[in-house]
Amino acid sequence: MKNGPRQRATIIDVAERAGVSKSTVARVLAGSASISDEARDRVLKAVAATGYERNHLAVGMRSGRSGMLGLVIPDITNPFWAEVARGAQDRAAKDDISLLVFSSDWDAGTEATHLRALRRARVDGAIINPVADNFDDLDRFGLPFVFIGSSAERFPDTLSVGSDIAQAVRLGMDILVERGHPAPALMLGPRSRLARARFLRAVHEHCIARDIDPDILLVEESDYTVEGGRKAMGRLLAGPWRGSRAVFVANDLMALGAMIAVREAGLRCPEDISILGFDGIPAGAFSWPGLTTIEKPGRQIGIRAVECLLDQIAGRPEHGRIFLPCRLVERGSLADVSASVAVRTAAGR
């Protein structure tokens, strides 16, 4: 005869094993300071021995909190967004908070469905990379929230955490100039994405500051995917190329696809084509050559977003808009042709 399922331990079981009252157990689990060290130790040992777990639903009904947060990101298969989710999860876990993660797939309708699900789940707040341009659900959301990512720029009065894209692009353009590539081709995402406009604006500002006509830069666009980068690189290679053969790619997945296209064309990176990525996903370290890239602080964005959201839930002052700095990660995909550029410049004078 099979045994039935083990009965779940209750707070009464813990109290009996520890030899204290039920209210004492409750105060220990709530983190009360008005408990002796000896009683707290007995309760915690009893909790471990019985396998007791708090009923968070019941606690939430009493406190008005569910102990859950929501996270809506555009593409959980993209390693950058996975890093954001991991940072958010790790930070939430420090406060014994669960995180519900949804992927909108860059679709406004899917995003709206997820937001409704979060409301039904009675989460305490949400972190959102807004896909919809007008975000009609914003006023109706009815919960504390924090925006993340480039899309948050459409809502300047809303609390948000993201990468400092202007600083990141300057880092990339500076290393390109230093390595002898002052006018690289650009590989950008779709015109519908705000990140594309921010990236291009920062490149133009850098060029104008260095007295370079931004109109001379070759521009290709595609999806933020490996296949998108492969196709865009193929189009660049098929057309006329002005200046040094270097490409500044606005997404590491696209950059990895571009490297595939270079090999398929019988060329070498960086000897024939230099490639600079943008995101800092782990896969870039395992390509050949390793992808030189501008690393965005994905995990830190997730951590800071949770911290800002918890502050907002607790009624502490808002943080405003937070832009976290990016950093250059040098590997092997960017050639240094500065010496030959200097020779050519001197010879042409």
From TrEMBL:
Family annotation (PROSITE patterns): HTH_LACI_1, HTH_LACI_2
InterPro entries linked to this entry: HTH_LacI, LacI/GalR-like_sensor, Lambda_DNA-bd_dom_sf, Peripla_BP_I
Keyword Ligase attributed: no
Gene3D superfamilies tied to this protein: 3.40.50.2300, lambda repressor-like DNA-binding domains (1.10.260.40)
Pfam families membership: LacI (PF00356), Peripla_BP_3 (PF13377)
SMART domains in UniProt: HTH_LACI
HTH lacI-type domain location: 9-63
Swiss-Prot/TrEMBL keywords: DNA-binding, Plasmid, Transcription, Transcription regulation
CDD domains in alphabetical order: HTH_LacI, PBP1_LacI_sugar_binding-like
Gene Ontology MF, one: DNA-binding transcription factor activity
Protein name from the UniProt record: LacI family DNA-binding transcriptional regulator
Source organism of this protein record: Ensifer adhaerens
